[in-house]
Amino acid sequence: MNRRSAQAFALGLLLAAVFIWAGNSVIAEKESGRKLTLSDAKRHLEDNGYHVISSSEFSKLTAKEDPVKKEQPSATAGTKAPGSTLQKEQEKAESEKKFTLIIVSGMTPKDVAAMLQSNGIIADAAAFERYLIDNNFHTKIQIGSYVLTNSMDFNQIAKIIT
């Protein structure tokens, strides 16, 4: 590269930087002129079907729901017979969460782990991703749909999806 082409390249970089700076300055000035007020935000939310309530109203609503939730466990606790394995098994079956994982082309182990965590199948997405990588499952993930439950461990899930 000779001196003339190096100078032309430098001039091109300089002009590109000036255009980018000027564009950002103009855009930033136009956006700062439009301020969103609290009343505008409330009106926008109400127009889209949301209900806007104050924090005191929200705390009153949640306080009304809490006694109902507290009464239900105490009522069921008195009806349980000690050592009743049938009821325990039914509760375990009810608490078991099923999820159909659909893996499509291009999904990474991180995507799979995030989906499983967001649906309550695993507790820690990073730990599951690390497990897949450490045990060489990350290269064997197959496209398809898989039914998984929250009672499965990492090894069972990994064997199903590979």
**From the 3D coordinates, which CATH architecture of the domain at 93-161 would you assign?**
2-Layer Sandwich
- Uncertain parts: none
- Binned strand content: 5-15%
* Strand order across the largest sheet: 1-2
What proportion of the residues is helical, as a percent range?
55-70%
In total, the number of strands is 2
Under CATH, the homologous superfamily of the domain at 93-161 reads Endolytic murein transglycosylase
In CATH's first tier, which class of the domain at 93-161 applies? Alpha Beta
Question: Roughly how many Å apart are the termini?
Answer: 52 Å
N-to-C order of helices and strands: HHHHEHHEH
Radius of gyration: 28 Å
Number of helices: 7
**What summary fits the major beta sheet?**
2 strands, antiparallel
Overall, the morphology is flat
Describe the structure.
- The chain has 162 residues and is mostly helical.
- The protein is built from 7 helices and 2 strands, in the order ααααβααβα.
- It has a domain at 93-161: Dna Ligase, domain 1 (2-Layer Sandwich), CATH 3.30.1490.480.
- The protein has helices spanning 3-32, 38-47, 55-79, 85-95, 109-118, 125-134, 154-161, and strands spanning 98-103, 144-149.
- The mean pLDDT is 81.
- This is Endolytic transglycosylase MltG.
- Residues 63-95 are annotated as: Disordered.
- Residues 63-72 have a biased composition (Basic and acidic residues).
- Residues 73-86 have a biased composition (Polar residues).
